[in-house]
TrEMBL record:
It comes from the Eukaryota. PROSITE patterns: FAD_PCMH. This is FAD-binding PCMH-type domain-containing protein. GO terms for molecular function: FAD binding; oxidoreductase activity. Residues 120-300 form the FAD-binding PCMH-type domain. Belongs to the oxygen-dependent FAD-linked oxidoreductase family. Keywords: Oxidoreductase.
Length: 572
């Protein structure tokens, strides 16, 4: 269980700092709460054994991944292995209850705290079911409903919003659902052509590999380890292909879904249309448990890739910013070609890594980058530049294979094209950017245009501000593995107040990407869902009438509160 003190809850630390914590939740007497370990109503061992039998022996009691680092389980060699791999995706993907966001693990059985500190489950789920059949999901939901236990869906655990774990919860672990089915000619009322159906455990790299085998590509994410059918596509899903093909959710054809009432249904543009609409961009882990998704496939294409790096070493701060300003000025021209830009920078170094140009020639890419590189030359900034052409899409994105995880937290907003169309808007953007970076942030600056036209005018729940977007701009603060929760959450407050708020003022309506942004954005309903929120809430209430599915920033999430010990209670 979590330590019994207010400081034990990272969410409460942040909310208290922001003045948003409702202190009447410091006890749970009289509240309607999910059952919690230690409660008289918590299921007996016999009940858990019964569940295990009903799911064919696939129930797993959580042992946190950091347990070898603590007494009485301490194992020096095993602990060193955990520490060395803590920032690698596979460590957490292959674990039934671990997730890739240390913030939401809340220092529970942390491998970097003293071995004498007891290993407690904390914000890890209590149990996970290693799902292989739909009945395993159904039985788990039935058990959670019967015993009033928090329910969680986990695939890879790659989630910056904390939806893949929960104190006192039971989860369905979807990671081993790896079935893929290729259609040369998928036929439906609205589409006839190649398509790919994948189960919930299939990851982005596996999607790309399967499509390439058939001479095609799929609109998938940059990070190869992310689960495709879950939070990624349900959250909209930006891609290196977004400037030419829109969002991943623009290409959904059908979902197979297990509802929280135990039904196995299909959701498509002609069957359970409301559920299909919501799952296509309305947020993961909210309306039902997705078993599979079928998406359109597109012919493979040649891709040009460019990369450019330089540092601030040996140049003045103003000269360094002049170089970044010159880069910002050429971005509209780059995006006009249908390209995608991924850049990161702080006060010490700048990386454009990479520019991806689908069906864009190397000569075209070079011509739009030349004005910027000429400026770098005139400023006497040394830089490394590479330009390559690739016959297959997957070859161009192969460098997206070494993502560091577990040591940072995000903010982020969508910025519109109109901001960059006037000198006044551009100057305001640059002032804001410099303040953020000089204020200590590392920024992740994505240039893309997933317009209505690029997405084929798809009818779905993708935030409308994506259609006007020119950037997804994310301030990042890093933390050390040994940093205290108080330090980490002070930094999250900095992101929310000092970085995100100025960015919100630059946007149309404060829109943000529900998979990569500040998970504690006070305006989260409009930020992550915009004008779709009320419609999405009605879909939620229809398909999840007992509110089994929960996430802090998921539609309907404000109906619940996390109280002092980590348990989930109905908000008053």
């Amino acid at each position: 269980m979590w330590p019994v003190s207010l400081s034990s809850s990272p969410i409460n630390i942040l909310l208290q700092g922001l003045g948003l914590l409702n202190h009447k939740y410091l006890t749970y007497e009289g509240l309607s709460c999910r059952n919690f370990p230690g409660d008289k109503s918590w299921p007996t061992e016999e009940a858990w054994n019964g569940l295990n039998t009903s799911v064919d022996g696939r129930l797993i009691k959580s042992i946190p991944v950091g347990s070898p680092c603590h007494d009485p389980y301490y194992d020096k060699k095993a602990c060193e292995f955990v520490k060395q791999n803590w920032h690698q995706t596979e460590m957490h993907i292959s674990h039934p209850s671990s997730i890739m966001d240390a913030v939401f693990l809340n220092k529970s059985c942390d491998p970097f705290t003293s071995r004498e500190i007891p290993c407690y489950i904390g914000s890890y789920v209590q149990y996970a079911v290693n799902v292989s059949e739909p009945i395993h999901v159904v039985k788990t939901i039935e058990f959670a409903r019967k015993h009033n236990i928090r329910f969680v869906v986990k695939n890879t655990g790659h989630d910056y919003m904390g939806r893949s774990t929960g104190a006192g919860a039971i989860s369905v672990w979807m990671h081993h659902l790896k079935e893929k089915e290729w259609f040369d000619e998928y036929s439906s009322p609205g589409y006839n052509g190649p398509a790919l159906r994948v189960q919930a455990g299939v990851q982005g790299a596996e999607v790309n590999a399967e499509a390439t085998k058939h001479g095609h590509l799929i609109v998938a994410g940059e990070c190869p380890s992310v689960g495709f059918a879950g939070g990624y596509i349900q959250g909209g899903g930006h891609s290196t292909l977004s400037s030419v093909l829109g969002m991943a959710a623009d290409h959904t054809l059908a979902f197979e879904v297990i509802t929280t009432t135990g039904e196995f249904v299909t959701a498509s543009p002609t069957e359970n249309e409301d559920l299909y609409w919501a799952l296509s961009g309305g947020g993961g882990g909210t309306y039902g448990i997705v078993w599979s998704v079928t998406v359109k496939a597109h012919p493979d294409m040649r891709v040009t890739k460019a990369r450019l790096f330089f540092s601030s070493e040996g140049v003045s701060r103003d000269t360094y910013w002049e170089a970044i300003t010159a880069y910002q000025r050429i971005i509209p021209s780059v995006l006009d070609t249908g390209s995608f830009l991924d850049s990161t920078y702080d006060t010490k170094k700048f990386r454009m890594d990479p520019l991806i140009g689908p069906n864009v020639s190397a000569s075209t890419v070079l011509s739009v980058l030349t004005p910027w590189m000429s400026t770098l030359d005139s400023l006497e900034i040394n830089y490394n530049f590479t330009l390559t052409e690739h016959t297959k899409y997957v070859e161009a994105i192969s460098t997206y294979d070494n993502f560091d995880i577990m040591g940072y937290q995000l903010g982020g907003r969508l910025l519109p094209r109109t901001l960059f169309q006037t000198e006044e808007g551009f100057s305001e953007f640059m002032r804001t950017v410099r303040d953020i970076v000089e204020g200590g942030a590392y920024v992740w600056d994505i240039g893309l245009r997933p317009s209505w036209k690029a997405g084929g005018y798809a009818n779905n729940a993708v935030h409308p501000e994506w259609r006007e977007a020119e950037r997804m701009y994310n301030p990042v603060l890093f933390f050390n593995d040994e940093d205290s929760l108080e330090h980490i959450w002070d930094d999250q407050k900095r992101i929310s107040v000092l970085f995100d708020e100025p960015l919100r003022k630059l946007s149309i309506g404060g829109g943000a990407y529900a998979n990569e942004a500040d998970p504690f954005a006070p305006d989260w309903k409009s930020a992550f869902y915009g004008e779709h929120y009320e419609r999405l809430l009605s879909v939620k209430d229809k398909w999840d009438p007992e509110q089994v599915l929960y996430g802090t920033i998921a539609v309907g999430g404000d109906r619940w509160e996390t109280i002092e010990d980590g348990r989930l209670c109905r908000a008053v």
